[in-house]
Amino acid sequence: MTAQTIATQDEGELLLQSRFHAADLARVRIEVDLHMSTTTLTEQRRAQFVLAAHEVMCNAVRHGGGEGTLRLYRSADGVCCRVTDEGPGLSEEMIPRTLPSPDASNGRGLWLVRELTDRMEIARHAAGSSITFAMGFDAA
Q1: Model confidence over 69-107: pLDDT tens digits?
Q2: For the whole prediction, is pTM greater than 0.90?
Q3: Residue 135, phi then psi, degrees to nearest 5
Q4: Distance between CA atoms of residues 49 and 84, nearest Å
Q5: Which of 18, 45, 65, 101 could in theory staple to 41 by disulfide, Cβ–Cβ 3.0 to 4.6 A?
Q6: What's the rounded Cα separation, in Å, for the pair 117 and 132?
Q7: Contact 55, 111 (CB under 8 A)
Q8: How far is 82 from 134, CA to CA, in rounded Å?
Q9: Which residues contact 78 (CB under 8 A, 6 or more apart)?
Q10: Where are the alpha helices (DSSP H) in 2-139?
Q11: In this predicted structure, what is the pLDDT of residue 94?
């Protein structure tokens, strides 16, 4: 993850807002990919962003009450995705610093999101938690 100052607040143009359950994961992943195809991200970074969105949505389904809401934003300098759920949340310290071993029961998804994106933030709130990640646009 590089240190960039991509907006991770609800700033910029809302591209997608979607409530999801387990059965909706593939559909929302496709919708995120379609929106990312209109950006200047390289094909590799686009795929990484879409994978990150999928991993965070899977976490929301598995650990956050079985459902969540995804919001996708575009700003002048990049794209931002926020997934909110009703789960107990976690802290940054709970995400492993190195790739978890293959026999670990969890931890790989958010480790991967942190590695693939330019910025990731975790927040807890009264109704649950949210994970926000961002990726800066590639130079033209």
Answers
A1: 999 999 989 999 999 999 877 756 666 576 656 666 666
A2: no
A3: -140, 130
A4: 17
A5: 45
A6: 10
A7: no
A8: 9
A9: 4, 6, 7, 118, 134, 135, 136, 137
A10: 25-36, 43-63, 108-116
A11: 65
